Amino acid sequence: MYRSSLIIAFFSFLFLSGQQKQNPTDSTLIELNEVVLSAKVIFGSKFVAKNRTGSSYYLSPEEIKKFSYTDINRTLRSVPGVNIYEEDGFGLRPNISLRGTSPERSSKITLMEDGVLIAPAPYSAPSAYYFPTIARMQAVEILKGSSQVQFGPYTTGGAINMISTEIPDNFGIFLNSSYGSFQSGRIHTQLGDCYKNFGYSVEYLNYNSNGFKNLENGDNTGFDKNDLVAKFKVNTNPEAKLGQEFEVKVQYSDETSNETYLGLTQEDFDADPFRRYAGSQNDQMNAEHFQLMGTHALKFSDQFRITTIGYYNDFSRNWYKVDYVTIDGERQGIGNIFGNPNEYASYLNLVKGATNSGANDFLNARNNNRDYLSTGVQTKLDYHWSGENTYHDLEIGLRYHYDEEDRFQWMDDYAMVNGNMRLINAGVPGTNANRVSSAKAFASYAMYKLKINNLTLTPGLRYENIRLERLNYGTNDIERTGSELSERQNKVDVFIPGIGFNYNFNDLSIFGGVHKGFSPPSNQPGEDPEESVNYELGSRFSFAGISGELVGFYNDYSNLLGSDLAATGGTGSLDQFNAGEVRVQGIELLLNYNFLENNESLQLPFTFGYTLTDTEFLNSFGSENDIWGEVSAGDEMPYISKHQFNAALSLEHQSFEINLSGRYNGAFRTMAGNGPIPADEKVSSNFILDLGGKYRFNDHLAVTANAINLLDEAYAVARVPAGLRPGHPFGIYAGIELRY
């Protein structure tokens, strides 16, 4: 009945839209523009995104700059179909879902920067402990639904591609600096130029904060991040018979963040949501990321181009944090302690610093020391031609990829003395975890685009051949001699088909498609991949000054995989488990209207986005380590808000702009279930307002100001990894921009 109501409402809307008087001036919104795209982008512009055969969104440079966000969560909230739960309040480690995929550490979507996989180890350990800094991005592309066989390996929900700042067409210098609440600062600068046969760009970004949470000893709870990017390119003359271009990109970033997995009990959160327990005083993430990327483009003609990218990503991190507590020699994980606060009251008191340690009482801090490598080469061939009333485009892609995660971890034991942690036993590196997980993957795809008058069809086929392996050296062989080596392997060989369509009726287009959803398994022998069949049907429209998009989607999982992540209260083994059959369906709505469209000096654009995500397990099972709890058929998936919407209103003038944005995020459950959400498994809904503004003195100088959480709402964003954690409180920031 529910599904029938959605379908009836959807087609009723399409019918009413089609009855509106056609406006020829709006026809350009839905005409297909045939462009050969760079291999670094999915769309390259809003125009192309609006004419995909699948649902898509292009966050332009203008949209990204409106609020000067450094938080990817706030940047993506305007996009329907994107479901997010926060963790640290700054977006350092986001949890992003596309169309109901599991959001934990954004590990079930294809993440890219400049068209290259950017998760730490995309196949063997994809959890996003590294995420590119959104403040240095020029644009963000989000692809959902059908015809996404070009981008993998995660094809169920979609792909996100972040486009870094390009080499400018002419000489330019840019500087943006801001400062505000919680001693938060940012400096972002770029220098670049382009000549006939050579171009370059050098970019630096630092942003930092003392944090909005409070330790009793007054220690810093914030972070400090640096990002440096250099790009160089050489190219042949424009008139060359065989056009060539080669670009090298070098990126380095480091991060020190005083972040913890320890949250708060409900009682303590209600009293002071910004408190940090004494047991988290030494928790800190230290990380470094290095990327080397070379892109070579061969343009044989206006119709035929080959682009090849070689990439190397190295990421190392050590998140030092309390993971266990020992009382009288009995050890308990922090997830279990906060899940049963009454039963483990003595453990909690030690974490809070309310009691001192006895002879056998310790806080066990783990050095989560890991090195990641992700490297490979990929090639894209694009050939297009035209016939009478037809347009054809054939795109073929090949990629060989290798990645690995190297765990070399150990534990330190601390005593709690008068609210201060004192090191008692320093652990030996490698004695907690000592193993290497790796993946070798060959992927290829072919996508054919056929346009016949107003109809566009895009059938495609992807192939993934994956070999996953784990070498466990054991905690007694820290020299890795192989004396206690255990090995395990898993192999996947899969074809992923999909087809999409788009049909134009001048100011109305209908699009849709069917594709296979796929997510790689872990290295456990015999474990099956996550698979689904996904459907969507939508419309893009423009009438009476209103433009927008309405999409209905239905994802039918035959085998959903859950992951044992410490970030969601698990053990952190990364092992996956079978969750069986699941249904995810929903509606995405996007509306745009300009109240002052005919005004020559002022513009007043309004945007509204709404997402309904309805989930249901179709079978019963018990999830390992109680990550999702005991699941019964009919239960909803955890961590997914059923309702969310975003509204934005901007007043724009040649000299100034004022931007107001409001986001509603519906309540979600942290354990699978149905009906009313139990209080201890609920993250309540919230509505957050942000305000941003800019005044331009001239083409070279501008001042900016923005306010985060304008109403200063105190709200919880999650109950994982261990306890409640707050969202960003009210903060105000001001800055200056210089351009030459």
Features:
single chain, 740 residues, mainly beta, 22-stranded antiparallel barrel, five-stranded mixed sheet, 7 helices, globular
Question: What does this protein look like?
Answer:
With 740 residues, this protein is mostly beta strands. The protein contains 7 helices and 40 strands. The protein has a 22-stranded antiparallel β-barrel. Strands 1-6-7-4-5 form a 5-stranded mixed β-sheet.
How does the SSE layout of this entry go?
Elements: H1 2-18, H2 46-49, E1 56-59, H3 61-65, H4 72-76, E2 82-85, E3 95-98, E4 110-113, E5 116-117, E6 137-144, E7 158-164, E8 172-180, E9 184-194, E10 198-209, E11 214-215, E12 223-235, E13 243-257, H5 266-271, E14 275-276, E15 284-299, E16 304-327, E17 330-333, H6 334-339, H7 345-352, E18 362-387, E19 390-417, E20 420-425, E21 433-452, E22 455-472, E23 486-504, E24 508-519, E25 530-543, E26 546-563, E27 576-594, E28 602-603, E29 605-617, E30 621-622, E31 630-631, E32 643-653, E33 656-665, E34 668-669, E35 682-683, E36 686-696, E37 701-708, E38 716-718, E39 725-726, E40 731-739
Parallel strand pairs: 4-7, 11-14
Antiparallel strand pairs: 1-6, 2-3, 4-5, 6-7, 8-9, 8-40, 9-10, 10-12, 12-13, 13-15, 15-16, 16-17, 16-18, 18-19, 19-20, 19-21, 21-22, 22-23, 23-24, 24-25, 25-26, 26-27, 27-29, 28-32, 29-32, 30-31, 32-33, 33-36, 34-35, 36-37, 37-40, 38-39
